Amino acid sequence: MSIYTISFLVAKKPKTKQSDVMERGRTDLRSLFPFLLQANEDSQESLTSFPRRDTMGSFLPDSSSYELLAVIGRGLDNLMTVNLARYRPTGEHVAIRRIDLESCTNDMVTYLQGELHVSKLFHHPSILPYKSVFIAENELWVITPFMAYGSARDLICTHFTDGMSELTIAYILLGMLKALEYIHHMGYVHRSVKASHVLISADGQVCMSGLRSIFSLIRHGQRAKVVHDFPQYSVNVLPWLSPEVLQQNLQGYDSRSDIYSLGITACELANGHVPFKDMPATQMLLEKLNGTVPCLLDTTTIPPEELSMKPSRSGADSGICEGPGAGGVRHSNGEPSSSSGGHPYNRTFSPQFHAFVELCLQRDPEKRPSATSLVGHPFFKQIKRRPSEALPELLRPVSPITSFESSQPQDSPSGLASLESGLSHLEVDDWDF
Question: Which intervals carry biased composition (Polar residues) (predicted)?
């Protein structure tokens, strides 16, 4: 174990320094994000010729063009407010992240600069687009589409507490892999892959977010082979990080660390909880370094005597495999059993799904496949339709949050109350969008 690891694991977010705030007050806030000036000028020209483009600059960089409807979350030590809003020129819903720049530390500003620079470079259907970014008074406004199903983590917490069906997971993981394939091709490591950074739109589009921790392998025009940087503000993402990222040794890590995080996310989606989540940071580190491998919880990994007991997670909280089980009634494709006491894990995921997770969670990063290779894995052969056709059906009885609009006027008090009620279950603090 690296002598630096423990200090990294227990690191806290830096507090706002009074000197930083005073210095910020004397600075033209737009000078902190100089590329926004050019982006805003370009957006005025692009609106005429490409009014429906899903890239930065397709929405007006003017706060008066947006009607703020409801606060749906906060973050960044309460420096960020997330609003649901209506874009006045078209009437469509968007999410607006408003960040108080005058109260941000210099480190936070640098952090945001890196995120926005990357978002300007990335254009891919599986990565959440930033429709517009601009400064309104003392706030940085980031405009993104409103993802009406919320995050995959929201869906687990509210509707699929024992995990999703295998087919649903296949659609979500394929969308994540396509995003990671693009990110890695562009020379970046995501470093924050988890279910709360997977957003699903009303029409079933799967988008990756969470670009704040992303790191470029390109240095002085050359692509570096490994990274030695530990992701800032990473305390909440530790269970998903690979052993080599946590270890922080001279060997470093590369894009294959994201593949390990994808495997942890697959377990999160299937089991309804995150492996290693309840462990102290040092114990989690030791477990990962010693090669402890999380698994999918089903009839092949849980002993039959546990499956016959009352439903309880006491033996499965860690999501760690304890050896194959034998016998028992098996249910294909991860569908929960409605008989045999109704144990939520009395089900059987396909061998292809188990094999996929095992590949992702190899202790040795050299043995993990690339995102490009995993897109062709046999696990995804069960996908027969486009996500936009399949996911809304697979997510039933969940409906997108905008479904209230057909029966309630949006601007009426009862309509807004219905909207806020629908939004109340979302953990938008963790969306990082």
Answer: 334-345, 400-415
Which domain CATH number covers 381?
A: 1.10.510.10
Residue 135, H or E segment: strand 132-136
Instruction: Name the H helices within 104-233.
Output: 106-121, 152-158, 166-185
Quote the tokens at residue 26: 């004397």
Would you give the end-to-end CA distance of the chain in angstroms? 34
Q: Are residues 224 and 76 both part of a single domain?
A: no
Question: How confident is the model over 266-288, as pLDDT tens digits?
Answer: 999 999 999 998 888 889 989 99
Q: Which of 76, 204, 194, 195 is nearest to 142 (CA)?
A: 76
Side-chain half-sphere of 147: how many Cα atoms within 13 Å? 32
Total domains in the chain come to: 2
**Run of H or E residues at 67:** strand 66-75
pLDDT tens digits, residue range 296-350? 999 999 988 888 776 555 444 456 664 433 333 334 455 554 444 578 898 999 9
Stated pTM of the model: 0.81
Residues near 307 by beta carbon (within 8 Å), at least 6 away in sequence: 299, 325, 328, 340, 343, 345, 346
Does one domain contain both 103 and 203? Answer: no
The CATH number of the domain holding residue 138 is 3.30.200.20
46 within some domain: yes
> Token pair 């309840």 is at which residue?
278
- CA-CA-CA-CA torsion sign (374, 379, 382, 383): negative
What would the two tokens of residue 251 be? Answer: 């060997």
Domain carrying residue 73: 16-146
My answer on whether 220 and 355 are in the same domain is yes
Q: In the numeric block, which tokens belong to residue 396?
A: 């039933």
SS3 127: strand
* Per-residue pLDDT tens digits for 62-95: 999 999 998 888 877 788 998 999 999 999 999 9
Render the burial of 2-39: b for 16+ CB within 10 Å, e for the rest: eeebeebbeeeeeebeeebeeebeeeebeebbeebeeb
